[in-house]
Every structure is written in C-alpha cells, then in structure tokens.
Amino acid sequence: xxxxxxxxxxxxxxxxxxxxxxxxQQPLDLLDxxxxxxxxWCQAHPDYKVGGxxxxxxxxxxxxxxEHEVLVQQQDLLTDHCPAIKLRAAIAQQxxxxxxxxxCGLFQAMLxxxxxxxxxxxxxxxMTLDYRDQQAFLAHYQPDTPVPCDASP
Length: 153
Hints:
Elements: H1 4-25, H2 35-44, H3 54-78, H4 83-110, H5 114-141
C-alpha cells in the first residue's frame, strides 16, 4: 500500500513548482503590473534563477522595459501638442531620470554588495512604476483637444 501521507505533499509541491514555472513563462504586462507582480515573476522566471543578484538583474531589466513602454505612451500622448509642451515633457523626463538614478544610487553608494544591488534595482523599479502611474494620470486628465500653440516669438 503506497504511503499517501507522503504522496500528497510531494504532488502539491510539484504542482506549485509547475504553476510557478508556467507563470514565469507568460509575458508580463508591465503597464498593469504591480511591484509584487513583477517581483514574483522575476523570482519564478528560469532565466533569472542563478545567483543572488539574478532577481536584481530581472528587476532592472523589467524597469528598463517599463520605462521604454511609458516613454512610447508619452510620445503618443504628446503627438498633437505644441513643441513647447513636448520640450517641457522631455525636460521633466530627464529630471525624473536624474532624480531616480541619484536616489536609487544611494543604496550601492552606502555599501556595494548583492543585497544593496538588489535594493537599488527594486528602488528603480518602484520609482518607474510611480512614473508610469503619473503618466497615466496625465493621460487620463488631458483635455480632449490640445491647447493651441502660442505663436508669439
């Protein structure tokens, strides 16, 4: 007679591992994902399983992907706006990048080890998620028609 007390936990563990790998294989919708969604995806993804810094590398990769997607959305949002508005948006984006890099760079400046690398990557991702949300807020509340451009010199 097989030992069913041992078989059930093994079966449960196997199914959890399989579902975790299946989750990691699915593409991640970064425009709707939370920090926790992205962290779990990174921890389960087979490409990021090796070494302590692998999760930080995944978070950095997802942060870069998310930033690109947000910039594409921002360009679409500003298509019909004046050059002056586009310039202000570009300046704001550059200032945000500088702030994010300075703020999150503090983690590694304090102590350069794997934990602080992962913390810096988490910081960059969290700030990029915040930037995504601010851009969505701007898109949601923009006027239906762009404000006329100021033609004065």
